[in-house]
Design goal:
By secondary structure, this protein is an alpha/beta fold. It has 10 helices and 21 strands.
């Protein structure tokens, strides 16, 4: 795969879960914490100032407030590719490093978001599905507009050609979808992006392997959580922000989050064969306040789901209700130092029967 030269040169939940997160204590400037970290928070947007689609839109006054918050001295906004490179190579990042990502290359990115991001001086990445641009579908950017942004230093990520639900495709169809998008990127921009975002955040074990074998250095979903040195590089998390879940408190929660370090996550495949799944993980480091760990599931109303602790480090989440077809989520959080929260999330794809 030809590398994205721009990237190389410039450094390239369910409502219940988020309502539960909204009760977390305010996040303030936190003196005395380490100045270097092996983690970063990646935030995700779709549309800007487009009220016709509130579930994927962020209001412009909300977005301006987010940018103003990120200008605070305690945050460092870096290009996503640079963060990936530093974490993969073991280099330290500033504490509270944030990456801004945008999915789908809607026209409102060019018209509404880019001017504000330029004014703020923030790098960002647009994950682009190429069919929409190839077919000149209204409400999407054109290749000319995207190239203008690339020439100005904006980063582009791979988002497949069709933006279809990849777990609903055969593996050969997944490969073809990715290859066709790569050909369009090469033709239109002169490079193939080295980082991919799964459409709808959906992937499974075989899909991750296809992406890895295709030569991508990292791939992102849409499960909430913090990207850190122990993360699965082909199942990386992002915090989604929208009208309903775009309060300044939500942004602060995400930008100040720390990793809940886990390993041996079950089930191994995010495409569920058992519903509800037997979900669990082993903690990769010790936490003195583990009795404060809480997990929330999108198939469960009324608060946290039951947790069973096995030994010192194994956590099992006991789900009694099945997920509906489509996407399901689990978020687990643990209070961290001085009001910050450690966070680990998972997203499942539930096939229709």
């Amino acid at each position: 795969m030809k590398k994205n030269t721009k990237m190389t040169k410039l450094g390239h939940v369910s409502r219940q879960i988020l309502l539960a997160a909204s009760v977390f204590m305010p996040l303030l400037a936190l003196p005395g914490l380490a100045a270097a970290a092996d983690w970063a928070s990646v935030i995700m947007y779709h549309r800007f100032g487009d009220g016709k689609y509130p579930s994927t839109n962020i209001k412009l006054d909300q977005f301006k407030e987010h940018l103003q918050e990120l200008k605070a001295q305690k945050y460092t906004v870096l290009p996503l590719g640079q963060i990936v490179d530093k974490i993969q190579s073991g280099q330290a990042l500033p504490d509270r490093t944030v990456a801004i990502t945008i999915d789908d290359a809607y026209l409102s990115v060019y018209e509404n978001a880019w001017p504000l991001l330029k004014e703020a001086g923030f790098p960002f990445t647009i994950f682009t599905s190429t069919d929409a641009l190839d077919k000149k579908i209204p409400d999407y950017m054109s290749w000319e507009q995207l190239k203008e942004m690339v020439d100005a230093g904006v980063y582009v990520g791979h988002h497949t050609a069709t933006h279809r639900h990849l777990p609903a495709l055969s593996i050969e169809q997944v490969k073809e979808d990715i290859q066709r998008a790569s050909a369009s990127f090469e033709k239109q921009l002169g490079f193939v992006p080295g980082i991919l975002a799964y459409p709808y955040g959906e992937y499974g074990r075989e899909i991750k392997e296809v992406v890895k074998q295709a030569g991508f250095k990292a791939a992102f979903g849409q499960q909430s959580g913090v990207f850190y040195s122990g993360s699965d590089m082909y199942g990386l998390p992002r915090f989604a922000l929208s009208e309903a879940f775009g309060s300044i408190g939500r942004l602060r929660l995400a930008a100040n989050a720390m990793p809940l370090r886990v390993k041996q996550v079950m089930p191994k495949d995010n495409i569920l064969k058992r519903n509800p799944p037997a979900f669990g993980f082993t903690l990769a480091e010790q936490y003195s306040n583990l009795n404060q760990l809480s997990c929330f599931s999108s198939n469960q109303s009324g608060g946290a789901v039951p947790i069973e602790r096995l030994g010192d480090a194994r956590i099992e989440v006991r789900l009694s209700k099945t997920y509906s077809a489509g996407r399901g989520r689990i978020n687990c959080t643990l209070p961290g130092p001085e009001g910050r929260y450690r966070w680990f999330g998972a997203l499942f794809y539930i096939p229709r029967r």
